[in-house]
Amino acid sequence: RNRKRLVDCRSDIDRWNAPFLAIYESLVPAEEEKAKQKQLLASLEKLVNKEWPRAQLYLYGSCANAFGVSNSDIDVCLAIEDTDINKSEILLKLAEILQADNLQDVQALTRARVPIVKLKDPVTGISCDICINNVLAVVNTKLLRDYAEIDGRLRELAFIVKHWAKKRGVNVTYQGTLSSYAYVLMCIHFLQQRKPAILPCLQGMEATYVVTVDDIECAYFDQVQKLREFGAKNTESIAKLVWAFFDYWAHLHDYANAVISVRTGSIISKRAKEWTRRIGNDRHLICIEDPFETSHDLGRVVDKYSINTLREEFDRAANIMQYDPDPCVTLFEPY
Ligand code: 3AT
Ligand code: MG
Fold first, then answer.
1. ipTM field
2. Ligand 1 contact via 141 beta carbon (within 6 Å)
3. GO:BP terms for this protein (predicted)?
4. Is the CB of 134 under 6 A from ligand 1?
5. Atom of ligand 1 nearest to the CA of 184
6. Which of 22, 149, 174, 302 sits most deeply, having the most CB atoms within 10 A of its CB?
């Protein structure tokens, strides 16, 4: 499968800027929603502190990384010092405390890949997953949020891509398609390699933020308010970028050899990472390096069937962006 781009971008692409921006605006959560989330977090923290006085709660995932659409569930991390009790016991105790406080649908999933307690707050209607000591997720959430501050086109593009992925059924990790986190990294990488670049490589700059989590040093330049002009030399519109994003994944990405790496701001080879062979269930059919856990390929959920689904969807989207008379509608048609 070796397809080439046949044509340049359609000349009338900018006609769709306003409609794409309207879709983006319709997905952005209202301020009240943020306030409700904070309120729920504070009341959960109070409860938790009765049992574990020094434990802290952090928001992570899309409710804290600037890429959350309205009415999403919230992801919470309980940071608790290592004690003699294990994670399962903490989760079960936590579930007990929450249940006693009349939170709804409390469920401890102690055997999941990331063990969590699920709950629903009857006051705000918000559903919430609480995990324990998943500090790397809190740090990668900050990295994504910091990238979003640099150029507004990242948030616009990522909302549109996530919306497309949900509508087309390719945002379901247990079915072998990609997580929201992976799609946001794909957008960051894409904007890093645009010419001129729209985003810098924060991990390649002088580190102003350094933390060590589970023996992994996470270091990058986080004074992003100083980088607000970074992408100004590139004047590409959102419609053009949506077109180019799908063109990239349909026609330009080298699936056989390339790993996209936000950490280095470039492409690295599968060979350099020893991701050329299948080991266990890791097939490396589309390779997306985690910015901090660099041995972790976010494409590892993708199998020999779902890779075709994904690539067909990238092709479909690229074709629609190039030829369809109404791309803002057709792109998001349910599969
Ligand atoms: P949704 O809006 O909920 O679809 P999200 O960004 O909250 O998007 P997830 O709920 O899939 O995404 O994941 C929550 C956070 O967990 C996002 C990221 O900080 C972390 N995370 C998810 N998957 C991984 C992974 N494979 N490796 C490391 N961190 C991950
Ligand atoms: Mg989430």
1. 0.96
2. yes
3. mRNA destabilization; nuclear-transcribed mRNA catabolic process; positive regulation of gene expression; RNA 3'-end processing
4. no
5. 6
6. 302
